[in-house]
Specification:
This protein has 580 residues and is an alpha/beta fold. It contains 19 helices and 10 strands. The protein has helices at residues 2-14, 20-53, 57-106, 109-114, 117-164, 167-208, 210-215, 219-266, 269-274, 277-318, 378-384, 408-413, 429-433, 442-451, 455-458, 478-492, 508-522, 557-563, 566-579; strands spanning 338-345, 355-362, 367-372, 393-398, 401-402, 415-418, 496-500, 526-530, 542-547, 550-555. A 6-stranded mixed beta sheet has the order 6-7-8-3-9-10, with helices on both faces. A 4-stranded antiparallel beta sheet has the order 2-1-4-5, with helices on one face. Helix 5 (117-164) runs antiparallel to helix 6 (167-208). The longest helix has 50 residues, at 57-106. The chain starts with a helix and ends with a helix. Bound molecules: adenosine-5'-diphosphate (ADP) and magnesium ion. Magnesium ion is lined by residues 378-379, 420, 500.
Length: 580
């Protein structure tokens, strides 16, 4: 356990390396600052013994100047330390945050499917913030106050080791207390982190599911659940506060024993005779002064442990494997012929095969439609083609090349995808259409918008294609969002088009416009369509009827109807629903 923290610390420190110079300056500032404070205290002896007791006006005359110089140097070193450390800390956290963001983006779809959005967001926002605190504030206290404690001890021993020896009895006791408290801090830190993750997750769920909550009257339930995570978070924090204040108090009590021993020793006759008032004052002042940095050091320990635990959780993510991209083959152009050969698949963590021994030929330039009950594996199959998931058994090939052998970005560049839930970004219509494309002209965007019937509604907005659509297109209707998605796919002009059709019912007007846009899009491409409305696929070259991960029937619309099997039954059902 402790070893893990040491390696976490080392690794965190490796992020400081690029900023070595500023970091060294900051360290010099911190140590210098502590040294100046210590020097100030050690000069009390000269001031009392030579100045006041010895009645030396020289020493007393130089005292005011000394004070001013000391405080100027103090200010200077403090600036070096605070600014330098702040700079290094913010840079370290920026690079960690960036790395984390990119890593999360590149994690496999399977990871994202299994992990709550809130907990990932909490890592990017809260955990990195904790690291920043540890890297700046906590480190500052650790180094500065640490150096101060050492300097104060040095002064005490320098002035009278006989008096100061008492303090050594306490070192082991303090060490035991600190190590116990440290362990406790780590445990609580981890819990706070999880509690924060829960707070974020719950909030995220409430914000994204807002309408459903209203519609189903879930306010009370959500309020109750948030109350729980919110309170749990508070409880964990209070445990931290309790441990913190208890540890500070106990260490101060321990320190008071040291102070008492010093006073006791000083009162011994032979000690008394050899002790000057200045020396006595310096030792006592040093001891009293020690209490403050000791308190800060014990206090900051919690923050430091929090930072380390956070760093650990961040590193855990950074150490996850990104989407495997071991393929090296690059195809400049593909015809779009896709073959499934004995493909089988089970989602990780389950033993049931959701796809079983699937064999299928998708001719280049043809349209293949998947139909079947929900849960029959249609979406799973469509996820194989852009390699969101890789099949556990069998081979899927594109133009005769195993998908696994293709370079991932190259593979995906041949695919345009329209998922069941149209995803749009909080940007203009035009930028949403051109999403992911680097060189694209306005004319091309406009053309795609026209073909996809986006212009029909965009032209009614004052900003036209520059209309900001809001988060995930909240300022648009479902049909309008779909049309933008179609325009996006059109502009991408990829040889393979995959569509997981949204089930939402549309008005006839939209339906006609969307069907028309889709027909334009699907011309001269390999299309893989998961259809819910059978009317959209009557003209498909091949209709594949799925059931429980297997192909039940395949053929053209008329052929399947003539077979009078599962497809015919499905068709009858929808037909009667439609006419009802
Ligand atoms: P369809 O698109 O035909 O409705 P899916 O391909 O989405 O069906 O799902 C096929 C089966 O796989 C279902 O039983 C579903 O419960 C399961 N499934 C889908 N996604 C996951 C996942 N991420 N983890 C585990 N099981 C899943
Ligand atoms: Mg589906």
């Amino acid at each position: 356990m402790a070893e893990k923290y040491t390696s976490t610390f080392k690794r965190l420190f490796s992020y400081v390396k690029p900023f070595k110079l500023v970091f060294s300056i900051a360290i010099i500032g911190m140590v210098g600052n502590a040294a100046i404070d210590a020097l100030f205290i050690s000069q009390i002896q000269t001031f009392i013994d030579e100045g006041i007791t010895g009645k030396s006006s020289d020493v007393l005359a130089y005292a005011p100047l000394f004070v001013i110089i000391v405080f100027i140097l103090r200010g200077l070193t403090n600036f070096m330390a605070t600014y330098g450390l702040g700079w290094v800390g913010s840079n370290v956290v920026m690079s960690l945050r960036q790395e984390l963001y990119e890593k999360i983006m590149n994690l496999p779809v399977s990871y994202h499917d299994q992990t709550s959005t809130g907990s990932l967001i909490s890592k990017i926002t809260y955990d990195t913030e904790q690291i920043e605190n540890a890297a700046s504030k906590a480190l500052m206290v650790l180094v500065r106050e640490g150096a101060y404690v050492i300097a104060l001890l040095g002064i005490m021993f320098y002035h009278s080791w006989q008096l100061s020896i008492a303090i050594f009895v306490l070192v082991p006791i303090v060490a035991v207390v600190v190590s116990l408290v440290t362990k406790r801090f780590r445990v609580i830190s981890k819990r706070i982190q999880q509690a924060m993750g829960n707070v974020t997750r719950q909030s995220e769920q409430m914000v994204s599911g807002h309408k459903v909550i209203l519609a189903f009257g879930g306010q009370e339930k959500e309020t109750e659940e948030f109350k729980n995570v919110n309170n749990n978070n508070r409880q964990q924090r209070m445990k931290m506060v309790a441990t913190k204040s208890l540890s500070v108090s106990s260490i101060q009590i321990i320190a008071s024993f040291a102070l008492a021993s010093v006073l006791y020793l000083a009162a011994q006759p032979d000690m008394l005779s050899s002790l000057s008032p200045g020396t006595f004052t310096v030792v006592i002042t040093s001891m009293m002064t020690l209490l403050r940095p000791l308190k800060q050091l014990t206090n900051v320990n919690s923050e430091f442990q929090r930072g380390l635990t956070a760093a650990q959780s961040v590193f855990e993510i950074l150490d996850l494997n990104a989407e495997p991209n071991n393929g090296t083959k690059v195809l400049e152009k593909v015809s779009g012929q896709i073959t499934f050969n004995n493909v089988g698949f089970a989602y990780s963590g389950t033993d049931t095969n959701v796809i079983e021994n699937l064999n299928l030929e998708i001719e280049a330039g043809s349209t293949v439609a998947f139909v079947g009950r929900s849960g029959s594996g249609k979406t799973t199959i469509s996820n194989f083609i852009p390699r969101y998931y890789s099949p556990g058994a069998g081979v899927i090939s594109l133009d005769g090349v195993d998908l696994e052998d293709l370079e991932l970005n190259n593979l995906r560049s041949h695919i345009a995808l329209m998922s069941q839930h149209v995803v749009l970004f909080n940007d203009t219509i035009a930028n949403n259409i051109a999403y992911g494309l680097k060189e694209v002209s306005r004319a091309e965007i406009e053309n795609a918008a026209k073909l996809a019937h986006v212009m029909e509604f965009a032209s009614s907005k004052a900003e036209g294609l520059d209309f900001m659509i809001g988060e995930n297109g909240s300022a648009l209707s479902g049909g309008q969002r779909q049309r933008i998605a179609i325009a996006r796919a059109l502009l991408r002009n990829a040889p393979i088009f995959i569509m997981d059709e949204a089930t939402s019912a549309l008005d006839t007007e939209s339906e006609r416009a969307i069907q028309d846009a889709l027909n334009t899009l699907m011309k001269d491409r390999t299309n893989i369509v998961i259809a819910h409305r059978l009317s959209t696929i009557e003209n498909a070259d091949k209709i594949v009827v799925m059931d429980q991960g297997r192909i039940l029937e395949q053929g053209k619309h008329a052929e399947l109807l003539a077979q009078n099997g599962a497809y015919a039954a499905l068709y009858q059902l929808q037909f009667s629903e439609g006419s009802a």
